[in-house]
Write a structure and sequence with these properties.
The chain is mainly α. It is 54% helix and 11% strand.
Length: 70
């Protein structure tokens, strides 16, 4: 079975969105700053619902925020 992981561009998107903090993003999507940090660092995969909410905040399709990397 191939191993892979979910990677994301949240840090870059936050920077481009006026240097939005992890806490600000968490507030907008209903997650803690710690959870946002863990998702951003690839230590935690968000629920599908949270992933869609994150993408929506940045006005991007899901696949421009999250992707699968082998």
């Amino acid at each position: 079975m191939a191993k892979g992981r979910v990677v994301n561009d949240i840090r870059t998107l936050r920077f481009l969105a006026g240097e939005m903090t992890q806490a600000e993003l968490g507030e907008k999507i209903g997650l803690t700053r710690q959870t946002v940090a863990a998702i951003e660092q690839g230590k935690y995969s968000p629920s599908l619902e949270a992933a869609f909410r994150i993408a929506q905040i940045f006005g991007k399709p899901l696949e421009e925020v999250f992707r699968w990397e082998e």
